[in-house]
Amino acid sequence: MDVDTPEIHGKLKNAKVAIAGLGGLGSHIAVSLARIGVGMLLLVDDDVVDLSNLNRQMYFIKHLGMPKTQALQEQIEQINPLVHVKIRTVRVEDHHVVELFEGYDVMCEAFDTQEAKAMLVSAALSRLPDLKVVAASGMAGYGSSNGICTERRMKNLYVCGDGEADAAAGMGLMAPRVQICAGHQANMVLRLLVGLEDV
């Protein structure tokens, strides 16, 4: 079955997906999910669009200075106005993970730092037992794209990336590998929404 069949379209239209972090990963994930017709997207980030973001994130010069939540909401409305977009321009803290993400089918973790990633994944898995989490780790630099993959780590946890190439001096985040990893995350979300839990 493909995404155009009524059965698949119905599952996507009724789905609710949250994206935590709207940088290189999250902004591309959101656009991919909007294009396939996911019915509701929650976009969460507390940052504004900066000139340094434009090398790998789904923003344009006109968005400079705008909250990323608003800039991305504006783009999605132009891509697919049938998608209901909710935004929360807040920093995700441990104490309000449940309040933010309860009731969603899948949550994408798309943060920059290992500390933020670990906090969100741990809190979500321990407090929201029905939530499926699609996280990312290791996509920096310009190594082979073939190293980026998706793994099922736990019952409700999927991790995309190479697990090794974290951003560091001389090994920054480059658009191609970041977008490949974002594509893995978006595709895993799609598989989960249509009932396919294997990678």
Q: Explain this structure to me?
A:
The protein has 199 residues and is an alpha/beta fold. The protein contains six helices and seven strands. It has a seven-stranded mixed beta sheet with strand order 3-2-1-4-5-7-6, sandwiched between helices. The chain is globular and about 40 Å long.
How many strands, which pairing sense, and closed or not: the largest β-sheet? 7 strands, mixed
Give the class from helix and strand content and strand pairing: alpha/beta
Flag low-confidence runs.
Answer: none
How many H/I helical runs?
6
* Strands ordered across the widest β-sheet: 3-2-1-4-5-7-6
Total strand count, please?
A: 7
Radius of gyration: 16 Å
Average per-residue pLDDT, rounded, comes to: 92
Q: Please give the alpha-carbon distance between the first and last residues.
A: 17 Å
State the shape: globular
What's the helix-strand series?
A: HEHEHEHEHEEEH
Beta-strand percentage range: 15-25%
Q: Helix content range of the residues, please?
A: 25-40%
